[in-house]
Design a protein that fits this description.
Length: 416
């Protein structure tokens, strides 16, 4: 139907948009304090970017991407996540030639995945995220985790648990893959078709399978096969987390759902009535820029679903209170008063006050009623007698007090 949004999408209505703005404002404020600058990338990219970056063994690429040929017969994909586009922009615009690290963030970045819609999971969703290129020390791993914690808590989402893991680098992962394959091979007949396909190309992804992961709890852990460099990095991350007084747990089962991850991976989890919910996830992607054709540049980042944040706020009753729509609402009686009201509203807005007047030709009583429903802080009444004397009636709606104020002194009186 034309009057229904497509399945898996939702509208953000005018009365609810302030909640998104609060989340976006907190993200901008907290990121700016740490030297992050905003990036905005296109909503769609060449399909190959995600095949090479995200990985063709992932559920995202194999099952969930919105891909189509444009009129030039080019394969285009609506972006399923934000990191690959940021890495492409980093390469295309030669940001690697600028002083590093390059710290970026994005707010309410639209992303698209074709999957069964459910609570907290939509086909079009929005992410806040950070990406850092060119910082190899584990201190930046701890920094981005701390930033994520700060953003979540600033929006009334607490009771957070941090789970961290290291999935190594290509050097140590090769030996681990052989060990994992030896464990998985006799179990292959009991695994799903997707896992059997992954066995050759990327066996670690089997541990992230929604269908089979529970059968493989005794699988070898990557942590036991880390090379010296990866082990040292993971130990340093833990020391930085302790220095920042951020409690954490090591979860060897975290591999994350995208192929570009290396070394540090993490999830931030909160408990809900329906069980644990991951509200933020991320990690290192030290080989991504080079894989996409750029110079050897390490990276780390995370993504945080805005819809999930709002869902948790609703469940916990921590949603911010809606702001008043108007500071001042102007009520008028008569055509002369209405002409003056239009001028006054313009002056109030120029002075930085949110102001409006009746545009529906309602009675004076109905105008007052509307001002009350709009939670206006002040109501100014213009009528014939007051106009002649150069005064207006100013009513403080919270205090239920009203007084006459000269027309010329009105704005200063309201600001005072």
């Amino acid at each position: 139907m034309l009057t229904q949004a497509p399945k898996g999408t939702q509208d953000v209505l005018p009365q609810d948009s302030y909640r998104w703005q609060r989340i976006e404002d907190s993200m901008r404020r907290i990121a700016a304090l740490a030297g992050y600058r905003e990036i905005r990338t296109p909503m769609f990219e060449h399909t190959e970017l995600f095949q090479r970056g995200v990985g063709d063994t992932t559920d995202v690429v194999q099952k969930e991407m919105y891909t189509f040929n444009d009129k030039g017969n080019r394969s285009i994909t609506l972006k399923p996540e934000g990191t690959a586009g940021a890495a492409r922009a980093f390469i295309e615009h030669h940001l690697f030639a600028e002083p590093l690290p390059c710290k970026m963030f994005y707010v309410s970045c639209p992303a698209f995945r074709y999957e069964k819609p459910q609570n907290g999971r939509l086909r079009q969703f929005h992410q806040n995220g950070v990406e850092v290129f060119g910082a190899k020390d584990a201190s930046v791993d701890a920094e981005v985790i701390a930033l994520a914690m700060d953003v979540l808590r600033a929006n009334g989402i607490d009771g957070l648990r941090l789970a961290v893991n290291s999935i190594g680098c290509p050097t140590c992962r090769a030996a681990y893959h052989e060990k994992l394959k030896a464990y998985l091979e006799p179990r292959l007949p009991s695994l799903c078709e997707t896992c059997r396909d992954r066995f050759v190309r990327n066996p670690m992804r089997i541990l992230d399978c929604k269908e089979d992961a529970a059968k493989l709890t005794d699988a070898p852990a990557m942590l036991d096969s880390l090379c010296d460099d990866c082990r040292d990095h993971f130990e340093k991350l833990q020391s930085y987390l302790r220095a920042l007084d951020i409690p954490y747990e090591i979860d060897a089962r975290i591999v994350r759902g995208l192929d570009y991850y290396t070394k540090t991976v993490f999830e931030i989890i909160t408990d809900t009535d329906n069980g644990p919910l991951t509200v933020c996830g991320g990690g290192r992607y030290d080989g991504l820029v080079e894989e996409l054709g750029g110079p050897d540049t390490c990276g780390i980042g995370w993504g945080m679903g805005v819809e999930r944040m709002i869902m948790v706020q609703d469940a916990r009753g921590t949603a911010p209170e809606a702001p008043a729509l108007y500071d001042v609402f102007v009520c008028t009686l008569g055509e002369d008063a209405r002409l003056e009201g239009v001028k006054l509203v313009r002056e109030l807005r120029a002075a930085g006050l949110r102001a409006d007047l009746d545009h529906a030709a309602r009675s004076l009583k109905a105008q007052f009623k509307f001002a009350g429903k709009a939670n206006a802080k002040y109501v100014v009444t213009l009528a014939g007698d007051e106009l002649a004397r150069g005064v207006v009636r100013l009513r403080d709606m919270d205090a239920s007090e009203e007084k006459e104020v000269s027309r010329g002194a009105l704005i200063n009186e309201i600001k005072r």
